[in-house]
Amino acid sequence: MKINSKGWALLTDLYELTMAACYFENEMDQPATFSLFIRSYPPGRNFFVAAGLADALSYLENLRFTPEDLSSLERTGLFKPAFLEYLKNFRFTGEVWAIPEGRLFFAEEPLLEVRAPLIEAQLVETYLINTLNLQVMIATKAARCVAAAQGRPLVDFSLRRTQGRDAGLKVARASYIAGFIGTSNVLAGKEYNIPIYGTMAHSFVVSFPSELAAFRAFAQTFPENTIFLVDTYDSLAGVRKAVKAGRELKKAGIPLKGIRLDSGEIVRLSQAARRILDEAGFKETMIFASGAFDEYKIQQILAKGAEVNSFGVGTKMGVSADAPYLDMAYKLVQYNGRPVLKLSPGKMTLAGEKQVFRFYNQEGQMAKDILGLRWEQFERGELLLERFMSQGKITKALPSLVEIRERFLGEFATLDASYKEISSHPPRFPVDYSPALRKLQQETIREVREKELGES
Amino acid sequence: MKINSKGWALLTDLYELTMAACYFENEMDQPATFSLFIRSYPPGRNFFVAAGLADALSYLENLRFTPEDLSSLERTGLFKPAFLEYLKNFRFTGEVWAIPEGRLFFAEEPLLEVRAPLIEAQLVETYLINTLNLQVMIATKAARCVAAAQGRPLVDFSLRRTQGRDAGLKVARASYIAGFIGTSNVLAGKEYNIPIYGTMAHSFVVSFPSELAAFRAFAQTFPENTIFLVDTYDSLAGVRKAVKAGRELKKAGIPLKGIRLDSGEIVRLSQAARRILDEAGFKETMIFASGAFDEYKIQQILAKGAEVNSFGVGTKMGVSADAPYLDMAYKLVQYNGRPVLKLSPGKMTLAGEKQVFRFYNQEGQMAKDILGLRWEQFERGELLLERFMSQGKITKALPSLVEIRERFLGEFATLDASYKEISSHPPRFPVDYSPALRKLQQETIREVREKELGES
Do B344 and A264 make contact, defined as CB atoms within 8 angstroms? Predict the structure, then answer.
């Protein structure tokens, strides 16, 4: 199993461990709450799709320092024996509140809050951000592609250029949550039970004596799965050869499933290919397009009348090319019952343990969110954060990937279409601070200023 | 060990396996050569740093389909028993030529060429691109940061926002090759023996009753490693508190190592911090800066006179934010002795097995490269591609990471400074095609056109 979360205790920033050592020496291990949220939207974005919680919880539940980890830490010469002994028995014993996977959320809203003894809550920061940042970013990017494709099926083709192996797996999962129908990634198919798809490469075509020979051979081996790649030499000549091979299939009673265009002017080529196929009686044969697609290019070519039935969406989705990271942070908001914050310019945090309350209009469409404190209640306000872990154990049955995907598609349908349009300045979904959160924030800022900056 | 390459046989695109099945049925398993290269430069780039070969070779040497992999493939219903039986005994038995890690190379030049029976050479495509794309991209980005920092030490701080766990490890390794002095990533430190660095977080400061109390506690636990984060509430007030804690250290004969600025106007704040430190007698105390640094921001603030001694370089390097993927391709260039290519618009390949010949001027600076055929020879032309694997086994002792890093730093010094300037239209290093490569290309294009497009 490649996707487990054991053995990753050292996949952390050194400062998590040095701070922990210092807390340990100072017996500072009172309950701390950290809030994980995205500070602001990357350009063009105005919503986020929750993803990655299953991995995060699995990490927390299984976190252990192995003897090998401990000797490695000892060799750094930084840590005292008592602290290493503490790490030997380390378990995460805290509580986790989170927005379930597949739900929509917005900037500043906590995706997850950890409440645990300070050392534990601090130590898990790096890993939690690493896994949630990636999966939210990709699910969000993929959701934008799904919206742009207006119902046309999309397949994740990104594995070769995802940033590493782990990303390859998580991109397949996150894009599936966001409505993709499957992936080319065979391991992701196996590990997550996601449908897998594939056609053929140019190298396949050129390794045969001729393009037609390549199509015939493929049809022989996979008669039910014929999507011929037609652009190796000349796309429209390739379509005519696909038709030739398709006629041979037809005689055996097997339909020509599709052709794939992977380069050139897709609008013109897809229209011409459609005509060639239709005139030859292959009206059911689909046109599959790949090659540098993302939400922008999908929208653009469909607006120009491209005759594409389905897309392979690769690199630009798989690395979220126009926004390859999120401004995701994990900040201490309460320690030992005391609300805390930092005032750093442009990075001020909101104090206190939080909840997000969602409101719908009479048509069942999402109307607004209120970001408030955990104990608050609002009539008809749906609670977004749910408790998933207590005392270090998962306390809630996690939904299957298919259930998460359905939840996303259902929720996405309740988000007004205006929020899904591709735009450099998309409208912002309304998120208000609750009066109680505002009050706590003002009080905490005043206290901190008085104490640290001598203001009164 | 997290970084081994066993168990990844299914981390591949489905089409690699369907094509392989078709080759298998057609007994098409003659020697094939695939060339892995970067088609063109992303915006602003004009060189690449070779990285990732150790991983690629380890993958090839260890590639096996486990019984679990095979049952999973069987369950797809796509593959016949004879092919699955073939996969059961699958080994990579081919030859690999590659440019060693740490060397500079340029667009179109093969970073690696695989010569193996067609099925084997095809099956490894996805993994090879995945790992080499990431590592070359990051080493290149990191080298740009190193150039911009003009000798100031850089530390990789990107782990929390690398795209997944695997990227976290490989970014640490690739940036170290490119001249970074270390990483915050503890696991990368352990696995690759890279120096690890860390300071403290804002959460550390806010969890103490006061900022000064936080500094004192840290100095108590790590007296030799005091880099105080000063911007939690107000940066210059923070510097004054660092001075206070530093005076207490001084009494014990221990120097205040540094302060860290993580937000705000770094130019102004670093100059003011320097004055405060100098006036208090802390002339040796370094100013460490972090927060959204990359080659552009490093260059900009140094040009404006920022008083920064060292940088933590995070997210933007760790995802290569301005160029989060490379146009890396793995293309069949020869099959069964016959040179092959594809003509797809904008994606035409160069036929034949290749070599890169490098020439230096009299001052020992890199002067030009010639991209030619494998068998060619040029007087004083240094051969970039070396044979690293024969019959599926590594045949060359691989250099240590420190040796790779030294090789890079040595070679980078022979690249004229004009190529290292940050520019949206950087000058191009001259790479010529050899006459023999040109001739082969023209002949192959003519043959393909005649055969496939009926041209004469």
Answer: yes
| Cα–Cα distance for residue pair B31/B204, rounded to 1 Å | 60
Q: How far is A284 from chain B (nearest CA, A)?
A: 22
Q: In this structure, what token pair is assigned to residue B319? A: 């995802």
Whether residue B264 and residue A344 make contact (CB cut-off 8 A), yes or no, is yes
Question: Which residues from B are below 8 Å from A346, CB to CB?
Answer: 263-264
At the topology level, CATH places domain A149-318 in: TIM Barrel (3.20.20)
Which residues of chain A make contact with B18, given a CB cutoff of 8 A? 198-200, 218, 221-222, 225
Indicate where chain B has its CATH 3.20.20.70 domain(s). Answer: 150-317
Judged by CB atoms closer than 8 Å, whether chains meet at B13 and A157 is answered as: yes
DSSP letters along A134-180, please? HHHHHHHHHHHHHHHTTT--EEE--GGGSSSHHHHHHHHHHHHHTT-
- A5 neighbors A193 (Cβ within 8 angstroms): no
| Cβ-defined contact of A163 to B161 (cutoff 8 Å) | no
Contacts of B206 in chain A (CB under 8 A): 332, 335, 340-342
Dist CA B289 CA B154 (whole Å): 10
Residues from chain B that touch A78, judged by Cβ atoms under 8 A, are 222, 225
For domain A14-138+326-410, give its CATH number from 3.40.50.720, 3.20.140.10, 1.10.246.10, 3.60.15.10: 3.20.140.10
Q: What is the pLDDT along chain B (456 residues), one digit of tens a residue?
A: 344 456 799 999 999 999 999 999 999 999 999 999 999 999 999 999 999 999 999 999 999 999 999 999 999 999 999 999 999 999 999 999 999 999 999 999 999 999 999 999 999 999 999 999 999 999 999 999 999 999 999 999 999 999 999 999 999 999 999 999 999 999 999 999 999 999 899 999 999 999 999 999 999 999 999 999 999 999 999 999 999 999 999 999 999 999 999 999 999 999 999 999 999 999 999 999 999 999 999 999 999 999 999 999 999 999 999 999 999 999 999 999 999 988 887 788 899 999 999 999 999 999 999 999 999 999 999 999 999 999 999 999 999 999 999 999 999 999 999 999 999 999 999 999 999 999 999 999 999 899 888 864
Q: How close, in Å, is residue A210 to chain B by CA atoms? A: 7
Percent composition of chain B: helix, strand, coil (DSSP 3-state, to 5): 40, 20, 40
Which CATH architecture fits B14-138+326-453?
Alpha-Beta Barrel (3.20)
Note whether B14 contacts A189, CB cutoff 8 Å: yes
Closest Cα in chain A, distance from residue B240 (Å): 11
Q: What's the pTM value of the predicted model, to 2 decimals? A: 0.97
Which chain B residue is nearest to residue A197, measuring alpha carbons?
B14
Q: Where in chain B is the domain with CATH 3.20.140.10?
A: 14-138+326-453
Q: Which two tokens stand for residue A136?
A: 């939210």
**Which fold is adopted by the domain B150-317?**
TIM Barrel (3.20.20)
Measured CA to CA, the distance from residue B371 to residue B357 in angstroms comes to 6
Chain B residues in contact with A181 (beta carbon < 8 A):
none
Q: Return all residues near A18 (Cβ < 8 A) that are at least 6 apart.
A: A78, B198, B199, B200, B218, B221, B222, B225
ipTM confidence: 0.96
